Amino acid sequence: MKFTVNRDRVHHAVMSVQRATAARVIQPILSNILIQSTPEGTLKLSATDLDFAIETQVPTTGIEQDGRITLSAKKLSEIISKLPGGSDVTFTIDEAVQTAKIECGSASFDIRTLPADEFPLIQQIDTENYLEVDHIAMVRAITQTVFAAAGYDANNVLGGVYFHLTASSLEMAATDGSRLARRLDTVATGNVSEEVTAIIPAKALQEFLKLGGASVEKSENEDAKPDTVRIAIKDGQISFRTPAVYMMSRLLDGQYPKFQQLIPAENKIVAYANRQALISSLERAAVMANERTNVVKMSLDKGVMSLAANTPDVGDSKDTMEVLYEGEPLSIAFNYKYVLDALRVIESDDVRMETNGALAPTLFKANDENEYLSLVMPVQVK
Amino acid sequence: MKFTVNRDRVHHAVMSVQRATAARVIQPILSNILIQSTPEGTLKLSATDLDFAIETQVPTTGIEQDGRITLSAKKLSEIISKLPGGSDVTFTIDEAVQTAKIECGSASFDIRTLPADEFPLIQQIDTENYLEVDHIAMVRAITQTVFAAAGYDANNVLGGVYFHLTASSLEMAATDGSRLARRLDTVATGNVSEEVTAIIPAKALQEFLKLGGASVEKSENEDAKPDTVRIAIKDGQISFRTPAVYMMSRLLDGQYPKFQQLIPAENKIVAYANRQALISSLERAAVMANERTNVVKMSLDKGVMSLAANTPDVGDSKDTMEVLYEGEPLSIAFNYKYVLDALRVIESDDVRMETNGALAPTLFKANDENEYLSLVMPVQVK
């Protein structure tokens, strides 16, 4: 196998797929990247830790000899990152001695290979049946929900994000038992003949944001039409395909909690606040929040909200801000981190807070839409 | 005690002195900052972990009532960093209830205080006898030597930097046994009547760079005259005073190795190389260096240098570059990290490499001056 490739292009590709290599090496091949020539004259790079896989393609400046090989992701990325930007890099693989020679200008490297046949097969599960979703809608739904998934156990369904797609809607939701985030959009999905439900590991979606977020930004800057993401589900796995990458993850097995029942149909108490001002006030009050409980008390009165916290033997904090509120005085205590998480992903200037009382679930929403909500359970304080 | 101060100024001051607070709290007062009003209407902020101390002054917009108090550095910096930039902050200390009230706009904080009388005395050891050294010369000498001090033991003399000042020279040197860095400058020192020798903990000098480096840069940008640093040594302690801060550190006790004997008086073998090109080549070759030994082999031949490394079962690397060299072929092996450390602090475009052979100490210098040298001991390889 022999090919020449632009250093910056292969650098970007290696950095992308490297994220899927296994962190702890049980099987050495899982810390390698599979590099294959394609009939179209490009290179396909793949990495997987068996639970999760990323593939991407790189145009070459010439494939002299076709082939398949695997190289250490760590060594490959170290080598390529040290090569001069913009230069051409030539790879010559000698399968007989299991060595790849990488040459660029005055530098040359011999790096051990492992045979491509030992690399696990990454299935292309979207060849027959797939769905299509607007890329920007997908990125927004992930961003607004994934933070609420539980971080403690990757195998628990609460460590995943509920995903529900119909011919006309995209719903994503996550909860860790203390808070819930849900987005339900009316979207023009393509190719969806029946409903699809899945629980996707939060880690896979976070990787999707890291890989895919950049592309979306780029499309927006270039004033291009929003891309779509091609999604397929098969044999307990889900795949996402964008023009840049193919990503695959195992799904979580189990019954997702019936979170819809937790969302109150009606809320009697409503207040409106400037989102950024509320974030700043909350951050200031939180300085004195107990570091174990993170409790901040939010008190509403006509036109004004007070935020207060205290830690015995350390001190007290208090901040007040203007809000739109006409109801009776009300005090609610929260883990302020949950409220900040919710406020940070809401996209509007003003937010709406809705509840039925000091111990009832409290909703945070954009002031002018209902597609997204973040529900936070209050804390009972003496 | 009651005063009002600009948020950005007090923020900068708290961030500066906070670096001297104790990392692990044995005495709670050592994690506090001492705040005192001065007769000049400024505030003096102090922190110390007993080995090391930093003091700085802040102009106020008004001291209504004089006093002295200590506050938690962590809580104070958290509070101030969350307050709006440019705003005025008012501190009101009620010593009867050991509480400081901090008010700024809509926000107010009550924070526990500890009495100033419990705070250790930070001596001003430069009131009678002191020396003066050019600030830029001092920063350069520290930068070019401190990295070579041993990192493993803060109480060993090798964990310090040798400091020698006469009426006309400033010498600093550091060695960890495998490499040595020394700068010897002819400087116009002020007020030096006799020679001064000390071993200064590397940590104190690194803090000096963090605090003082910024001021030097600022002076240079503003085209101002280089500042001087006032230095005093007394009772096993050293102090540095700049317009911005007063810093004090204990000195290390003991006999510093006679490093001058290690520096060869004459070197038969000399090569010149572009500094940046050598750094890049060395970094590329180092990709395949054994991660335990860090060995890179440097081979010189007429007009060319090759850098090579290898790790069994991983791979080999090789890079070549043009150098000015007329001698016989020669191969020397180094811990490449030591060579990179040396090359990175040399300030000239080209560097001079000098040695007497493959197993002799090798010097790295700027091509056109002798004030600075970095000595690296080669490694014997089979």
Describe the SSE topology:
Two copies of one chain form a homodimer.
Chain A: E1 2-6, H1 7-18, E2 32-37, E3 42-48, E4 52-59, E5 62-65, E6 68-72, H2 73-82, E7 88-94, E8 99-104, E9 107-114, E10 131-134, H3 135-145, E11 160-165, E12 169-175, E13 179-186, E14 196-201, H4 202-221, E15 228-234, E16 237-241, E17 245-250, E18 269-274, H5 275-286, E19 295-301, E20 304-311, E21 315-322, E22 330-335, H6 336-345, E23 350-355, E24 362-366, E25 372-376
Antiparallel strand pairs in A: 1-5, 1-7, 2-3, 2-6, 3-4, 4-17, 6-9, 7-8, 8-9, 10-15, 11-12, 11-14, 12-13, 13-25, 15-16, 16-17, 18-23, 19-20, 19-22, 20-21, 23-24, 24-25
Helix pairs in contact in A: 1-2, 3-4, 5-6
Architecture overview:
By secondary structure, the first copy, chain A, is of the alpha+beta class. Chain A folds into 3 domains: 2-118, DNA Polymerase III, Chain A, domain 2; 131-260, DNA Polymerase III, subunit A, domain 2 (DNA Polymerase III, Chain A, domain 2); 263-376, DNA Polymerase III, Chain A, domain 2 (Roll), CATH 3.10.150. In chain A, 20% of the residues lie in helices and 41% in strands. Chain A is built from 6 helices and 25 strands. The first copy, chain A, has helices spanning 7-18, 73-82, 135-145, 202-221, 275-286, 336-345; strands at 2-6, 32-37, 42-48, 52-59, 62-65, 68-72, 88-94, 99-104, 107-114, 131-134, 160-165, 169-175, 179-186, 196-201, 228-234, 237-241, 245-250, 269-274, 295-301, 304-311, 315-322, 330-335, 350-355, 362-366, 372-376. A 13-stranded antiparallel sheet of chain A has the order 5-1-7-8-9-6-2-3-4-17-16-15-10. In chain A, strands 14-11-12-13-25-24-23-18 form an 8-stranded antiparallel sheet. A 4-stranded antiparallel sheet of chain A has the order 21-20-19-22. Chain A is elongated. Chain A starts with a strand and ends in a 6-residue tail after the last strand. Chain A binds chain B through residues 72, 75, 78-79, 82-84, 99, 106-112, 280-281, 283-285, 287-288, 313-321, and chain B through 72, 75, 78-79, 82-84, 99, 106-112, 280-281, 283-285, 287-288, 313-321. Strand 21 (315-322) of chain A pairs antiparallel with strand 9 (107-114) of chain B.
